[in-house]
Model the fold of this input.
Amino acid sequence: MSIKVSIVEDDRGIRENLSVLVGGSPGFSCASTHGNAEEALRQIPLKSPDVVLMDINLPKLSGIECVRQLKAQMPRVQFLMLTVYEDSDMIFKALGAGASGYLLKRTPPARLLDAIEEVHAGASPMSGKVARIVVQFVQRMKQAAPPTELLSKREQEILDLLAKGYRYKEIADLLTISYDTVRSHIRNIYDKLQVHSRTEAVVRYLRP
Done:
C-alpha cells in the first residue's frame, strides 16, 4: 500500500514539483496539495494522509501553527517540516508543535522520499545541520544545572509564565512590573540557562 502524502507549500512551483515527485514515485501517492494553512486545515482532515509535508513560512497562519492544530485533530498523522529555516528557535517550535521530522528545502529528492518513508515508519528524519543543532542542545542540557538552582525567584516566575504561553506585556501586567524589566529578566534567564531563544529556555525549564 502506498504512503499517502499531503503537501502544504505556498510557492506554486515548489508545490507542483513536490506533487510530481511524490505522485510519480513507486510506493507513494499525493493525497492533496495546499497553498496556505487555512485551506490545509479545512481539507487535510478529509483526505486522511499518512504524512504531511509542511512549509513554515505560509501567507497568514504559519506552518508551525498549522501542524499544532492538525496534530490535535489527527494524532496518528506524521508531519515532516520542509523549510529554508535552520535556526534553533524554528526547529524546536516545529518539533514542539508536533512535527516528527525537519528537513531543509535543499534536500535531494531521493533523500526526501527516504525521509517520508522513515517518518511514516516512526523515525524522526532531520537534515544533517538540523540534527547537529538538536544534539548540541541536548548535550548542553545534560551538562547544565537544574534551572531552579540558577534562577532567582522572580526569574522562575517569569519563565513559568513564558512556559504557559504568556507574552512579555501580559507578564508585565500580571507581575505589576514594567515591560523593560521583563525584558531585562529574560536576558538574564537566557544568559544563565545558556540559551538563545524563548523556546530553548522553556524546553530547558520543562526538562525533568
Summary: The radius of gyration is 19 Å. The mean pLDDT is 87.
